[in-house]
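The protein record passed on for reference:
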Amino acid sequence: MEPFFDGGLIELFVASLFAFALNYIFLRKYLLLVYSVVVIACPVLLFFYRNGEPATLLTAVCVFHSVLLVILLWKQKAAEPYKQLFDIQKMKEEFRSKASFFHRKPKMDRKEVL
C-alpha cells in the first residue's frame, strides 16, 4: 500500500512534462540539432561506458528516444490508419532491377558452343 495516495497525479505530471519537453525541443531548430547528435552518439558511447552513472544516463537517453519513436509512429498510424507506414514497394522494384543484372544468363553464340 502506498503511503501517499496521489491517484496517478505523478504519472500525469511526468506525461505532461514529457509532452512539454518534446514540443520545446521540436520547435527550436538548434535544440533539434543538438538532440539529434546526442541521440546518435548515445548508443556509440555505450560501447565505452559499460558501468556507472554515465552508462545509466546514456541508457536513459536511448530509452527516451525509443519511446519517442513509438509515440510518433503510433501518431502517424492513427492519422492515416489504412496507409502503410513504410511504403517500400519502390525500393523493392529498384533493388530487383539492379539485382537482375547479376542473375542474367549470358547470351551465347552458336560458334561458342561448338
